[in-house]
Amino acid sequence: MSPQPTSLSSTSATVRHVLLRIEATAQWLAPPVVRIALALPFLRSGLTRWDGFLSLSLGTLFLFEEQFKLHVFGGEYALPAPDQLALMTAIAEIALPIQLIVGLGTRFAALGLLVMTGVIQLVFPNGWANFHLYWAALAMAIIAIGPGPVSLDHWINKGGARSGSPEAR
User: Fold this and answer.
1) What is the pTM of this model?
2) Which of 4, 19, 148, 167 has an alpha carbon 20 to 30 Å from 29's alpha carbon atom?
């Protein structure tokens, strides 16, 4: 009778314990890290769109009016309502990343950035492999896994669960 089976089962139990601890830590850390990873490029872009409080920069207006074109059906087409689209984009590139960072309306914010990524793909079709694929993957991961425990959504839902609301369950 050798001591190997006991040693092997002890090692196996230790490995299982370590893996469970790693998994628990990742479940806590991964959602905010993924949210921040998606938020940062959009927030950086959004900060460049403004010239002071609620004033779009001339560069942003020029880009949307003259430079940005939709690449669809083999042609290039001007953006519809470029000034309104520039304003909506500038607002979304600030508001949605902030929502992601704090974890408020997380899945909706991620969906909004996923839609924006799709539109950006139509404007810059060569960016798919370098940026757009990763942004889309991050957005879909957030939609799938949710905000995680380090988020306002989690704490709001946790409060709802205490009050017995069926939505929080």
Assistant:
1) 0.83
2) 167
